[in-house]
Amino acid sequence: MTFDWSQFVLVSAASLAGIIILLSITAAIGFSIGRHNVVDVTWGLGFVVIAAITAVLGNGDLWRRLLVLVLIGAWGLRLASSMFRRSRGKGEDPRYEKLLDDAGGNRTLTAITRIYATQGPALWFVSLPLQVSAVAHGTLWYLAVIGVIVWIVGVTFETVGDLQMDRFKADSSNKGTVMDKGLWRYTRHPNYFGDACVWWGTFLVCMTFWPTVVTFLSPIAMTYFLVFATGARLLERHMEQRPGYKEYQQRTSYFIPLPPKKS
């Protein structure tokens, strides 16, 4: 196994530059249309940009660079298109509106520092497995196979969970009720669980030998965001006020899919 540190510096710097350019464009769009939830669309696109940069500039195993590009490209473009459809024609995300209101003072500066600037380090850190593996040589094909399987499970949970929720919301008779069918019967957050699987699967695909092993901190960070920070926990606080949600919490697993508890 070999690892090219000088090429890694180039790949990582180029990835960071790509993130800065993408977020700058996103911020310009957000300020021009008067809503900053466009950054949610950029989240998925940011990883696609990084995957493309690492595939082109990396000098590691070609098959891994191309495989990662396909996996992250498919996941990121699906996520970006889904977020675009959900936000199109709607107002600001309540999370960002509350953030700007609570901060007070200069809302423009707050949007730049608290919404856009925070995305950059997160994108860069979570994508470290892509950056490191792009300049690494050494095949652990069995881990790559397991990783692809985990990735498929994750994308399936994300895609099916989102489709089931979209159909549920499209039915006016479901207004004011809690979605507890399909995958939502086994976990309260199938899309977030799927997202975590995507990144653990990607990590396994990217892992060869040292120093790719230490990039396990990236999927750990992503899982933390999804479970405890900006993902499921934040959504739970919003949903707890909805009638029937506390009963749903009592019978349905929080994150990992499990058979529902009996009433």
Automatic annotation (TrEMBL):
Cell membrane listed as a keyword: no
Chain ranges passing through the membrane: 6-31, 38-56, 62-80, 140-160, 216-235
InterPro entries: UstE-like
Any one Pfam family match given in the protein's UniProt record, by short name: DUF1295
Coiled coil: none
This protein's UniProt keywords: Membrane, Transmembrane, Transmembrane helix
Record has Transmembrane helix as a keyword: yes
Classification via PANTHER family: 3-OXO-5-ALPHA-STEROID 4-DEHYDROGENASE, STEROID 5-ALPHA REDUCTASE C-TERMINAL DOMAIN-CONTAINING PROTEIN
UniProt name for this protein: Steroid 5-alpha reductase C-terminal domain-containing protein
Organism listed in the record: Williamsia phyllosphaerae
